[in-house]
Amino acid sequence: MKKLLLIILLAAVFGLSGCVATMNDLENYKKEQSAQGQETRMRLAAIEAGAGVTPKDIEKLLEGSEVTKIRAFTGLEGDTTGTLDKIDTADILDGDIGLVFTPAGGIYFYTYEDSDTQAEASPYVIYANDRAGGPGAWLLQSGFYMGRSALPANVFRDSGATDYDDNARIYANCDDGSCASGSEDVDVYFQAQIGGTANTTWLHFDCDASGNCDIDFIPAGTGGLDFGAANVGNVGAITAAGIIDGLNNVTVALDGTENANTTGLLSQYIINKHATSGTALTVTLNPTPQLGMQLLVKNGKGTGGVNTGAITLATGASIIIWNPTTKDDCAAGEDLVSGGAAGDFIGVVGVDSTHYDTIGYQGTWTCQ
């Protein structure tokens, strides 16, 4: 009677999906349950006998249900008590979660993947120290620092999750004792790791106690900064969909000599305002011009009246400059000199590492 009732019950259940339970279905079900029961009894017996039992045995006792463990650690590597790599692979289940809290204030979130075969690359991929060439690794999901230690970092993992060799991080150094002067200082760095290379800083904010903040793009020369949608992707360009405004670099020459386009001054205006109106002005050009370097030099008006002195652009041994009066280059090393009159001016730009070209002028100019 019990067997008949069970057959009827199974028929009702399977009938909901269009299936019919047969005596064979029942016998197969009983055999499956018996086999699972025997496996369970064997594992329980092993536990009672004190035999070595792994978490995977416990998992089997729970009839295939997943048991995810959340584990806490105090370090990443070193195979010492409290480090992520100390725990043996036999004690880790696929999908386990590792939380690492370092004494310096770092917090890292990991998951364990027992089929992972990537090369170890801390902090992104970390092996258990007893792993002997087989699969399995802790994979970094995210990480950041909450402490006051030097160089805290927020780590962003490779989103492709295939080789974990393209990553980024943000870190800061907020330390008033690390500077030689002992002054307050804050540095914030944005770094990228591309193709497994070492972390490279591409953006640096440097702020001091006076409220001065510098922004540096590193490495220089190939990067671009784009505002808005216009010209996005121009190499080495700063582009904007709107208006970019700011002060120009202007030097008022009072002593008759100036050095042009020194460090940090790729664009510069120099005005001769000597107190003696007839005093000449000599401007020494940067000996290594760059494409796009700009300079404008003119006679202005000083306390002694309108300046009429000759303007000399001193080139140095290998520099060549365009003479706007003769419409030809001066010889390498020749200076370009104005006739010396009110209103004399000249604008030049660098076109390569040895040449300046003229983009505007007034007066008569000669190569000397």
Plain-language structure description:
13% of the residues lie in helices and 34% in strands. It contains 3 helices and 26 strands. The chain has helices spanning 2-15, 23-48, 55-61; strands spanning 70-73, 97-101, 106-113, 125-126, 137-145, 153-156, 167-174, 185-193, 200-208, 213-217, 225-227, 238-240, 250-253, 257-259, 267-272, 281-284, 294-299, 301-302, 305-306, 311-314, 320-323, 328-329, 336-338, 345-350, 355-362, 365-367. Helix 2 (23-48) packs antiparallel against helix 3 (55-61). The N and C termini lie far apart (122 Å). Mean pLDDT is 75; it is low at 1-23, 61-65, 147-152 and 227-235.
Key traits:
about 375 residues, 5-stranded mixed beta sheet, 3 helices, 26 strands
Question: Brief description of this entry?
Answer:
The protein is mainly β and 368 residues long. It contains three helices and 26 strands.
